[in-house]
Amino acid sequence: MIDALIASHARNEFARSMRFDGGGVPRVPPCTVDKPRLMYIHIPFCEQLCPYCSFNRVVFQEGLCRSYFEALRREMKHYKSAGYQFNGIYVGGGTPTVLIDELAETLTMAREIFPVTELSVETNPNHLTPDRLEILKNIGVNRLSVGVQSFDDGLLRDMERYEKYGSGREIAERLKAAMGLFDTLNADMIFNFPSQTSEMLARDLECLVDLGIDQITYYPLMVSDSTRRIVSRTLGEVDYRREKAFYRQIVACLRNRYRSSSAWCFSRKSGMIDEYVVNYDEYAGLGSGSIGFLSGTCYANTFDIREYIDQVAGDPGGFPLMASRDFSSRDCLRYDFLMKLFGMTMNMDEMNVKYGGRAFRHLWFEILAFMAVGGLRYRKPCLVLTERGQYMWVIMMREFFIAVNNFRDYCRSGVNKA
Questions:
Q1: How far apart are CA 297 and CA 326, in angstroms?
Q2: Lower CB count within 10 Å: N or C terminus of the chain?
Q3: pLDDT tens sequence across 351-361
C-alpha cells in the first residue's frame, strides 16, 4: 500500500515537473559561479533499436553520424565561450562507440579545453573489441559501462539482443577480457522484464559475482507510455507488483560483496557511480534530445537531429534548444532531496547552507513521512536511506525516469509531425 502511494505521488509530481509549457524563449543560464559540473553527451545512433528502450535514438547512418559529432564539438565550444568548466563527462546513448574515431576526437578535444578528471562512456557488448578498448583507454576513459541487461539467452532473444550481441556466455567472456583495463568496468543490468523469472535473475547474479565485475547497475525496467505498448506486444505486460521481490533478491545476493553507492548501483570500490545526477548538482546536456540542469534551469535540446546540426552550425554563439523551464527554489530543493538520497545520504548542514537555512522548512513533511514508514534515519548531520528506504527510492527514480521518457516521447511526436 505504501509503495503504491509513493509511486502514485511521485508519478504526479514528476509529470508536473516535466511540463515545459511556460512560454518564453528557451535559454541556457549564464555561468555566474565556478563549481563542479558534469557534461552529459548524448549519442543517439544505434546499429539496431531495442524495443524496450525509451531514450532518444535512431538507426545508425554513417554520414549523418559524422556530421552529428562535428556539431557536438561545436556545441562544446559554445559552453567554453559561455564560461562553463566541466570536471566530468558522461557519454550515453544510443551507442556512443558506434563511430569510435569520432568519439575519440570529440573526447580528446573536451579534455583539451576543460579540466576533466572523470570520463564515463557507455557501450554495448559487441563493441568490446581489442581495438575499441585500446582507443577508449588511450583517451582516458575511467569508467566503461556495458549494456548487458541479462545473460539469459531466452531473455536476450525476447529483448532482440541475442542476434546483435551474442549469447550470455559470449557476453560474459567479452566482459572478462575487458576487466582491469579501466578504473571501473560496469555491467548495466535490468530487472522486471515481463518474461523474467527469479531463477533467471539468480543465474544472472551468479554470473556477475563469478566474474567479479567492478560495478553493477541493476535498475528496473522503465518504459514510457508509448514504449509500454511496444513492450506489451513483444515481451508482455510490465507487472510492477513483482519488482520489489526482484529488488530484494538482488540486494540479498550483493550486499556482502558490494557496497551500495546508489539505490540501484553496487560497487566493489569507491569511484564514479552510475548516475551523474548524484555526483553533480549541475550538468549540461549536449546533443540532440539531451536534457541539462544548470543554475536552477532545466532545458532540452531539439530532438530533430538534422535541426540540431543546422542550429549549432548556424548560430556561432547559440544553443540548439527546444525548451527550458526555471525551477523555483523549493522545486530545486526537492530535486536535491530526491537525487542526494538516491545516492544513499543527504547532508542537511550542506543543504541549509545552499538554501539559506530553509531546507527543513520546505522538506519537513517529506522527511517526517519517510522516517515514519522506516525509509529514512537521521545520523547527524545526514539523512540516510535505510534498507527499506532504498526500494522506496528505486520506486521514485523509476517514476522520475518514466516522466523524463514521456517528455521525450512528447518531443519526438512533434518532430515526427513536422
A1: 4
A2: N
A3: 999 999 999 99
